[in-house]
User: Fold these one by one.
Assistant:
Number 1:
Amino acid sequence: MVTAKAPDAYLHGDEGPVVIVPAHVASYLRRRIPLDRLRGDARDMRDPEAYYVLNALYRAALTYESPTDNPVPATQPAPVPQERLLSSSQAGALLHLTARGVRDACEKGRLEAQQVDGRWQITKAAVRRYRDAS
């Protein structure tokens, strides 16, 4: 159990407020909002600061969620072995959904996935979690 601090303990900055977000809070946010989609939106809107902040949140969450003693390096997202990645069609076959239904679940953040080059990549573990929650 993490001991919570007063809100002012997370607020810093001399040139305007800056919020320090612990990795477990970043993980909480990642599970509830589509951080990966938001990162892509910020990049597409050419807002580099928003993209970098959302990227830092995403990486902190992955580091916190890493099951090994080797945290995710700050310079790259957590690597996922290719054999564990599924396309929206493959995930749909396992979930008895159409590929469009899977993409919709990914876009709404109900199914954890990463969008790479416009395509959703979904881990088998994410499919299991989604199926168990349904």
Number 2:
Amino acid sequence: MVAALFAGTISLECMSQPSSKATMKEQTVNQLRHIVLLKFKDAATTEQVREVENAFSGLPGKINTITGYEWGTNVSPENLAQGFSHCFMVSFKDEAGRNFYLPHPAHAAFVKVLTPHLDKVLVIDFLGKSK
């Protein structure tokens, strides 16, 4: 089940510097964003969580359809995270890029690193819109 959920996960922002805000908008609108929220098991150690972070962060160098990648940990003061601590955003040019990523062997290897430490995952994909 976890493998099915992760069959399409995250990316690395490898865009060249745009010359204007309009150009930046053109580069990001209509890209497919793959958002992954992770809640780790209470027993997961700092080292195990770091191993997952590093494994996820290695995917952009292994899967060429990833056009952007960002991640971070929750810093919201609202106390609404429901235990989810990590957010990863992987960008793709289009759905075909994501569809290549999901079954990719490097993604499958990442899922094997993640699964023993995972309590819950939430994955949402969307196409970027400017308005």
